[in-house]
Every structure is written in structure tokens, then in C-alpha cells.
Amino acid sequence: MRSVIRLALPLLLVAALPLAAQEKVNSAAMDKIRNEGLYKSQVMDVVSYLTDVYGARLTGSPTTKAAGQWAAEWLTKNGAQNVKMESWGPFGRGWTNDRFSANVISPTRYSIIAYPGAWSVGTNGPVTGDVVMAPLDSESDMAKFKGTLRGKWVMMTPTQDLPANFNAFASRYTDGFLDSLAAPVPVSQGNPATLFSTANRVAAQMLALKRSQFLVNEGVAGVLQYGRGDEGTVFAASTGSRDPNASASVPTIIVASEHYGRMARTIAKGIPVKLEIDAKNTFYDQDLNSFNIIGELPGTDKKDEVVMLGAHFDSWQTGTGATDNAAGSAVMMEAMRILKASGLPMRRTVRIALWTGEEQGLLGSRAYVKEHFGDPATMQSTTQQSKVSAYFNVDNGTGAIRGIYQQGNAGVGPIFEQWMQPFADLGMHAKTMRNTTGTDHLSFDAVGIPGFQFIQDPIEYGTRTHHSNQDVYERVQANDMMKNAVIVAAFVYNAANRDELLPRKELPKPRPAAF
Ligand SMILES: [Zn+2]
Question: Is the pLDDT of residue 116 over 90?
């Protein structure tokens, strides 16, 4: 596929020249959108409600539902119609951590930075036990430690040396780097390791099951996991199961690297460490389904055709899901508000979707696409599939939008080129044929609907906030957010009003085990 594109590119560019020239952009509308978004912005207020008032939005938890109801009301209040929380599932049980403390009580007293893994069982009140280092990487290791771990807090991995941070957590893409994205990427021949790693993965899963059962049988107090990160930042996600029929397990606590290191180095000297942890976790299995938040701005003469914009609403549990992904959700909600407040007519219906279940595998967006547009496993499409011009997604943190990934779609290049021009002063000018992965636009791309993610400056995302306890309001950059909402609103406006639907790639082949 890609080599064909490389050959055809010069031809396409020639063919695209008149197309680019033909792509009309309504500059008065662009100005209206810009003014509404830069001078009357509500985007940071939305972020604060989602993060400060509601907080972590793990799919299935009552907090996520309450935050979802608030977002639905906000959309209605700001002019969206047909707003609903559309159910999908089954997802599994919800989970919250309601109380947590972790304190070393001897040889000296100090509290530690730590978090229960999502879906971990709780401690049922404060539990005190000795900390031990017990690597359980094989059945022979289990045999060696059998009968010695009752009531203990078990560490299984050694500490790691933490290099000093010489690099900034945030950076702005240079124009040179952005231009380099335009270069075609070599087609990778597939990674031979994948075959091997599948067998490895199965073996690792089997060992993990045996180890989990061994820990239950031993009656340990719980497991202490080494938390990736430093300087108090802990990257943490799930350690338990959302399956209501999951087998028994022990509390699993993710500990900041510095505090894990202090305990490990102390016991390595033969000095006992006594640790008290109190983790009150609650599971919710009344309703195993989850929801997506949907709302619309009805179109006019082309109202049966749709332009979608969206972001995932769910987050992990240790921060407040600020940059991942209250930032994207707020940008999309604000874009809806801007379009409505601008009073600009839109020919196609504009539909927002805020997904849950993204962190567990794009579950909410996949369910929605399968329900409304088609099944990637069979490529059986509904009539609606042909009426969606595009889906625009934001899920790369708080950083300013600097461009867009065309996701292998050559036809949109010249069009996006024109759409970006009114925002060149905001730093928006890059486009690349490359794909970007790992988020909800893939659910649309998989059934042949153009799905796009934007190129964003890497602002403390991979380095600090992505799935960490530092993912909080303070890490969200207001100026970037306002620009992002303006650019998204403008792209959606242009897609809603151009004469034609956006060009499409070749329809994907059925993929039984898509994703
Ligand atoms: Zn995300």
C-alpha cells in the first residue's frame, strides 16, 4: 500500500493542485471561531470540573458516571441537542479507592507515596507486616519461599538506579522537526519478534496466574510493586481484574521508586522494616455496562450527513485524569460551545462523542462504531457509515496542536493544507501521511471512516503525566488548550460546510481479530 503511495505521490500532488486552490475557507467564520475561543473561553473551567470536582474517571466507577452526567448537562446548557449517555457493554465491574494510607512504622516512622493498582482488592482495615524481597519469577522460586510469606508485604523486583533528569519534561516541536514528518516513513517488514513474544506472553500469563494463587495460599499481606517514575511521580494503572468472576487475589500497591528503594535497601542490610497499609477499595457490579456521552448540533441542508469529534472521557486512578484525557474531552466540549455560540450555520450535523473504556482498549469507541457504522471483523457496514465525513480526536495531552496526521489518506492533504492556513500564527502548519495509533480515531479508521488525530507539542506527557499521579489540573496549559479548541472547532466547521464529504482511503479488508 505505502510503496504505491510513494510512487503516486508526485502524480497526486499534481492532481491535488487545483483541488487545493478550490478548497474554500470562510475567513470571516474562522475569525468568529477564533474570537469566541480565544476571548470567551470556558475550556479551563471544564477541565477544573472534570479534574478538581470529579477527579479520576476510571471506567465503571460511580465518579465517572457523575462526571458524565455533569458533562451531558453542560453540553445541553451550551446548546447541544439529543444529548445522551449511550450505554455499551458489558465492560465489567467498577472500582474506587475510598481511603488509603501507607506508613513505615519501624525501624523509623515515615509515610510513603503509594497507590493501590486499579481493581486491586483492599486490605479490609489497616494491615501491618514485615516487608520482604521475594523474587517469584519461576515455580522453583515459589517452592523456595513456600511457607515463609504469611502476613508479609512482598517485594518481587529489585530497585533500579535512577539517572538524573537532564532533559526538560516539556518541549515545543521545531518547524524543522515538523517539516521532517512530511517525509514518508520506510514501510516496516513486520517485527519477527511478535511471533516469539506471543508464546512468551502466554507463558508469562500462566506464571502470573500461578503466582497470584501462590500469594493467596501463602496468606501474604499484599504485594508492593516498584512504581515506574521518580521525583514523587508514580506511573500506575491496573493490577486487578474488572471481571466480576475473577479468582481471589491479594492487595497490590504501587510504591514510588524512592520509597520502594529506601525499604529495599534497609531490609537488604538485615534490618527488618514494618509497614502498615490501609486500603479501602470498593467494587461496583450492579451495572456491568458503561456509557459514551453523545450530543449534536443539527445540520441544515445536509443534516443527514455527520461530522464527528471526540475524545476519551475515562482515565486511570492515581491522578485526576487531567492531561489524559480531561484535556481532550474539554477541548471537544469547548469546540461544540464555540460552534454554537458563534451562531455559524452548519450544513452537516456535528456530533460529539466522549468515550469510556479507552484505557482498556478503545472499548467505548469500538462498541459505538460497531453499533452504528460497521464491524471491522466482517466489514459489513450500515448505511450510516457512508454519511460520516470524518471523526476528529484529541488524545495527546495538553500540548498545542501543531498539525495533523493524515492516517495514510492522501486525498485530505491539500484540503487540510488550506484549513490550517488561518492558524499558522498559532503554530499550526504540519501535516504528515503517517499513522498515529493507540487511541479512538482507530475505531473509525478500522471501518473505513476517515479518523484523524492531531500532532501536539509534547508537554510533560510521556515524561510526567501520562497515567501518573502527577496527571492533575496544574499540568494543563491554558493557552494551548484555548488554541486547540479553536483549531478543532474550525476543522469541524470546514468539514460540516464543504460541498463534498472528505476523501476516503480504500476500504479496509475484514480483520477478524481487529486491533
Ligand atoms: Zn489517553
Answer: yes
CA dist 168 and 147 (Å) reads: 48
CA of 400 to the centre of ligand 1 (A): 16
Check residue 377 and give its pLDDT.
96
- CA 194 / ligand 1 centre spacing (Å): 24
Q: Which residues surround ligand 1, an ion (CB under 5 A)?
A: 324-325, 395
CA gap 73, 84 in Å, rounded: 9
> What distance in angstroms lies between residue 395's CA and the mean position of ligand 1's atoms?
5
Q: How far is the CA of 353 from the centre of ligand 1 (A)?
A: 14
- What is the CA(453)–ligand 1 centre distance, in A? 12
Comparing 117 with 185, which gets the higher pLDDT? Answer: 117
What's the confidence (pLDDT) of residue 6? Answer: 47
Find out whether 71 and 333 touch, Cβ atoms under 8 Å.
yes
Q: 143 pLDDT exceeds 90?
A: yes
Rounded Cα–Cα distance for residues 231 and 123 (Å): 27
Predicted confidence at residue 7, as pLDDT, reads 46
Q: Tell whether domain 5-91+289-497 is in CATH 3.40.228.10.
A: no
Question: Helices 27-39 and 327-342 meet at what angle, rounded to 10?
Answer: 120
Reference 89, options 315, 370, 308, 325; nearest CA is 370
- The number of angstroms, rounded, from the C-alpha of 44 to the middle of its chain's C-alpha atoms is 19
Average pLDDT, the chain: 94
CA torsion 41→46→47→53, rounded to 10°?
150
Quick one: pLDDT at residue 2?
A: 42
Residue spans of alpha helices (H) in 253-360: 257-268, 327-342
Distance CA 98, CA 117 (A): 13
| Dist. CA 401–CA 426, nearest whole Å | 9
CATH number, domain 95-284, options 3.40.50.10700, 3.50.30.30, 3.30.70.260, 3.40.50.720: 3.50.30.30
Q: How far is the CA of 312 from the centre of ligand 1 (A)?
A: 7
How many angstroms separate the CA atoms of 419 and 399, rounded? 20
What is the pairing mode between strands 290-297 and 348-355? antiparallel
Please indicate, yes or no, whether the overall pTM of this predicted structure exceeds 0.85.
Answer: yes
